[in-house]
Specification:
single chain, 275 residues, alpha/beta, Rossmann fold, seven-stranded mixed sheet, 7 strands
Length: 275
């Protein structure tokens, strides 16, 4: 079995508070710019896409919501809430959402988007960079993060904390940028990195780190996404191109040898139901 490529640059050995300060500063700037462009309501198309998507979906975010479904009546915790789209989607699908982020501008945007989408009564927010400081003492039916974990340095500690705060029968669902090959790491430096907002301290995950994060859990399911479709954001308004590239990737990623070149992995981690 081919050993996963290990990036040469690990997380900087910097005090956690300093890392969080830099991340907060970066994302405060980013979400201030995004908020200035306006916060629009979710489209009917998005509401339909992310309510009950198929397990065979060719799109990573649809598969992400497939693993979360059904959400109605569930208590959900979102790690690194970003611009609030996932909080509003989960609330639209009937969840009671608790969302946190270390960026005040992010949380402002989460609250604003929830109001625009008439789900503010189901979205609760907090500004913090510490998982266990977020809504302390509460447990959840689902915990989620979209492009969140690779910003966080202590995976072993966090994975156990996530497991401990899941209710029995609960699921934690993540979508993460990954690098499993040296060649892909070099290529990534040449292609716009549009899956998530980059910061100087983040580190894309690899299969080894995902396996380590999954260790406390009782079961994991995962799928790889994005080979050629990584190029689509260069042409963001070309939906037929997006569909074509994702279909191509879906076929290519059926070949085991190509899966290590995927640039996104979506995975669900399950906690056993008590008997």
């Amino acid at each position: 079995m081919t050993q996963a490529y290990q990036p040469k640059t690990p997380f900087p050995k910097t005090p956690l508070a300093s890392l969080q300060d830099r991340e907060a500063e970066h994302f405060n700037r980013h979400y201030a710019r995004e908020a200035a462009e306006g916060v629009r309501p979710l489209t009917d198309f998005d509401k339909l896409r992310y309510t009950a998507p198929s397990a065979k979906s060719i799109f990573p975010r649809e598969y992400f919501y497939h693993l979360l479904a059904p959400l109605s009546g569930k208590r959900v915790l979102e790690i690194a809430a970003g611009n609030g789209i996932d909080a509003s989607l989960c609330a639209h699908n009937g969840a009671i959402v608790h969302a946190y982020d270390l960026s005040q501008k992010s949380i402002d945007m989460v609250n604003r988007r929830a109001m625009v989408n008439a789900v503010a009564n189901r979205v609760h927010t907090q500004v913090t960079g510490e998982f266990n400081d977020a809504f302390p003492g509460q447990t959840f039916d689902a915990i989620l993060g979209y492009a969140a974990l690779h910003h966080l340095p202590d995976m072993e500690k966090l994975s156990q904390q996530v497991y401990d705060r899941l209710n029995p029968g609960g699921v934690a669902v993540f979508a993460e940028p990954v690098v499993n090959s040296k060649a892909l790491d070099r290529l990534r430096r040449l292609i716009p990195y549009s899956i998530h907002e980059m910061t100087e301290d983040e580190l894309p995950m690899d299969d080894r780190r995902i396996a380590e994060f999954a260790r406390p859990f009782d079961r994991m399911v995962r799928r790889e996404f994005q080979l050629t479709s990584r190029l689509w954001p260069i042409f963001p308004n070309n939906w037929p191109l997006a569909v074509a590239l994702h279909k191509l990737d879906s076929g290519l990623l059926k070949l085991p040898l190509l899966r290590r070149y995927a640039t996104v992995v979506v995975f669900g981690l399950y906690k056993k139901q008590e008997i």
